[in-house]
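Cont'd.
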Amino acid sequence: MERLACARASVWRGKVATAPRAVIPTGYRELDRALPGGGWPLGAITEILVDGYGIGELGLLMPALAALTKEDPARPKKWVAWIAPPFIPYAPALQQHGVDIDRLLMIHPTSSVKSRWWAIEQAVRSGASAGALAWVATADGVVLRRLQLAAEEQGCWLLLFRPPSARLQRSPAALRVHLSQAQGVTRVEIVKCRGGQPGVVHVPGFALDGAASQASSR
Amino acid sequence: MARGLRSLELFAPSTQEAPRVASRPTPSKKQLWVAVCLPSLAFECLCDGGDSHAPAVVVEAEQGRLHVVAASRAAAEAGIASGTKLNTAMALAASLRVLERAPQSEQKSLESLAAWAESLTPTVSIEAPESLLLEVAGSLKLFGSLEAIEAKLHSELARRYRDFRFCAAPTATGALWLARAGRADVLQWRQLAGSLSALPLTVTRWPPEVRALLKDLGLRTVGDCARLPRDGFARRVGRSYLRDLDRAFGRSVDLRVEFKAPQTWSSIAELSEESVDCAIFIEAVEQLLDELCEELDRRQAEIAGLELAFEHLHRPPTIERFDLREPTLDRERLLRLIEDRLERSALPVPAVALRMVSGVFRPLERKNADLFETKPFAERAQALLERLQGRFGASAVHGLRAVCEHRPEKAWAKAEQCVDRAARGEALPAREERPLWLLQKPVAIESRDSLELVSGPERIESGWWDEQDVARDYYTAKNGRGQRLWVFRDHRTRSWFLHGLFG
């Protein structure tokens, strides 16, 4: 029976993962377990729905970004583009998290929505970015689909930071997570996950050293 | 009889300043020159295409007299030749169309031909007013044979001109004279003297008075002159004419000014009507780029920038400059760059024509392609930077750099994002935890009541040397919304500020 199913790729086989996808480990065991393939999906859009800044939304990504920017003979050297970051990504802190800041490219498009999407598309489509982080408020389905295809084509990990209200919109993203902060831990709610199941994961807030433990000890 | 005697006496050897006779050809025997002669260039430059049956001549003023430089076929049949006085020509052909010579367009036409001829050989020189010399010995191996080169030359000349001749010979002057006379190729040194000797003196283009003198002396051909005693000829006729003979026969070195094609390119595309429509501009740009890239390809050159000028009526042109980070000859890349800009910028008034001026040509640098990756990272990255900076300005795209500095706002800097950067001295990461987000400027906090200080203080002080002295106690704080903030209290003002978010 199993052999029969294997022989015909079109036979739907329930929950069995269809194809191994390129992922990058998140650096959090609980989260890796909850995501198909065991990490953030590369070559796809990951939407991060977040209410405000400073609740650990960047901290959550730091282990993966550190891995992505690390010199790796198996992976060609590429940039990680930051498009329209709301504040200054602080170089000393990024270094503390092990991110190679030489691989980061900051892009500040003009304020119009159109130019922001244009910049994102350029960064993804150029094939020069291994990852792209973009802060956008509004999006329409056509643009997102196009970006999803471009990301797939170039194997780029495209992260879109969007407000929680975007949850009601449909999106072609492979993964959508909603972040919130609760008692010193970051609550990661998987809203949509291609090839996986929605769920909630708690990861220790602020993975860096003793800050979290300090907080809890007080 | 008396005259003959006199001339014999004149040509008798004299003791003083006898020019040296080179006994054997001194120039390299390996040279092979092709001379291209365009007898009716002056005419063709003026009336392109329309070769009507009406006789027409091109005239030029010399010493206050107009005389014919070139004549159409109909005029030639009427007996008008180059050098005929205009009055005579008018008498010969009743309905004669007289055109004034345009030396500039002739020169342009020759230069364009010379630029093309550089695809056959690097040694091209223009022989004003209507000839071109190519040294092709070095190209024989590349093209296979002289016939192959001449076939290429023939098809190009036939495309450009109606009337042309070319001839190959071992010396430049020799080739030129043979071409003017329309003789066959001379490939052997031993045949050269014989072929040249039979040429009439008109091929030398020596001044009429010199030719008249030689004619009076009973000399009709080049060979007649070459047979005369050298010092007598030099004294009687002129040293420079003897030099010409020596060059033609290969007895002295024949140096030519090499033609250097211009190192820039420019062309203009007229629009069919006044327009502000981007689509029409793009169409014109594509057409111009086709020309430019063809030129670049032929010259094996690349450019690092170009200029696009929109010509308006009654107004100075609007000029758009495009600078590339890396020189290129890629048409698509240039087109995309221009498209991006044109889509965004609107013209103040309609344009009637587009002029494209390339930057200086640079010799093409060939890079090895990767076997598996279609395009190397460096190329993709350059293209990305170029497009982003082209649209948002150079300062909108940058990298990051950590700086060894205790004041938080000075501990980072923008870095020019280069594709291949050598590893640089790295600033040591701070020991204390730093926030991932830094605010552009510290923001004053109205009330500190909602903040819960989690850790700190970390004292950061001094900076008097650049008059940005600080005295702050930094804390990590938490607010009701679960945000972790980096705040400080200024010692002097005792007020609180938000400086970062832990992100």
